[in-house]
């Protein structure tokens, strides 16, 4: 029977594949994220001039704190596996998760302000400024959005893990990792998929309905609103006939 240390090394060797996939996605995210920063000036210059005093706070925090923290941990995760050992490598994964979570928090707080502005004031020049940093960071919209977003990320990650397990199983290689990845990926993916719909998806839909009723009507293809309006599961709105 294999000793626990042998199982740890086997799982770790398979985990390096997941680390490389994560590193690839991180690199793609950096490449696509850098042009996004420029779009604040090229595509949304008027909005940035008007609300930059607010959204610039969290975007700067995301870049200066979370991004550099995450980048360091990604490097240690991918290239420091042999030097750090099994436990050190696991600690880097936990630290990386904190960096990823903080990045998501800052970005989603920024987006939450765009959906439901709180904690701001009108400055003398007519632009927006921070009136309460606490209210801005603790925007209730951000909490619901963060939970929904992170669970969606768990769903995606679970399918990736299960897919690697299925690939190993079909190839007849790494049986320990194949069994572990298939079991964990499908189970966690199922639970996360349910939680994405309820309560997080339901809570975010209610936020949209309470604060952006026109947006919810557009999402449902409703041309005439009213109390207890029906919800469409599937369909194609007819713009010409307004139905």
Describe this entry's structure for a reader.
This protein is mostly helical. Helices cover 79% and strands 2% of the residues. It contains seven helices and two strands, in the order αααββαααα. The protein has helices at 4-42, 45-79, 81-115, 133-137, 140-171, 175-211, 213-220, and strands at residues 120-122, 128-130. β1 (120-122) and β2 form a beta hairpin. The radius of gyration is 22 Å and the shape is globular. It starts with a helix and ends in a 23-residue tail after the last helix.
Name the descriptors.
7 helices, two-stranded antiparallel ribbon, mainly alpha, globular, 243 residues
How big a fraction of the residues is strand?
A: under 5%
The low-pLDDT segments are 4-14
Overall pLDDT? 86
Shape: globular
What is the makeup of the main sheet?
2 strands, antiparallel
Spatial arrangement of strands, main beta sheet: 1-2
SS field, number of helical segments: 7
| N-end to C-end Cα span | 66 Å
Number of strands: 2
Q: Can you give the helix content as a percent range? A: over 70%
The structural class is mainly alpha
Radius of gyration: 22 Å
The secondary-structure element order is HHHEEHHHH
């Amino acid at each position: 029977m294999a000793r626990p240390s042998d199982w740890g090394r086997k799982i770790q060797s398979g985990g390096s594949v997941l680390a490389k996939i994560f590193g690839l996605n991180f690199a793609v995210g950096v490449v696509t994220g850098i042009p996004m920063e420029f779009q604040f000036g090229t595509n949304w210059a008027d909005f940035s001039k008007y609300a930059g005093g607010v959204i610039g706070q969290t975007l700067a925090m995301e870049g200066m704190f979370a991004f550099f923290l995450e980048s360091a941990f990604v490097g240690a995760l991918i290239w420091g596996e042999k030097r750090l050992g099994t436990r050190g490598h696991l600690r880097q994964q936990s630290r990386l998760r904190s960096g990823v979570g903080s990045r998501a928090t800052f970005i989603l707080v920024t987006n939450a302000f765009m959906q439901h502005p709180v904690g701001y004031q009108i400055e003398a020049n007519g632009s927006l400024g921070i009136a309460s940093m606490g209210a801005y960071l603790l925007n209730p919209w951000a909490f619901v959005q963060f939970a929904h977003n992170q669970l969606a990320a768990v769903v995606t990650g679970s399918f990736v893990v299960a897919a690697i397990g299925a690939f190993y199983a079909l190839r007849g290689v790494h049986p320990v990792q194949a069994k572990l990845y298939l079991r964990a990926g499908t189970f966690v993916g199922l639970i996360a998929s349910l939680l994405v719909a309820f309560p997080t998806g339901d809570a975010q839909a209610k936020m949209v309905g309470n604060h952006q009723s026109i947006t919810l009507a557009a999402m449902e293809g409703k041309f005439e609103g009213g109390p207890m309006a029906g919800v469409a599961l599937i369909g194609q709105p007819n713009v010409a006939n307004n139905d």
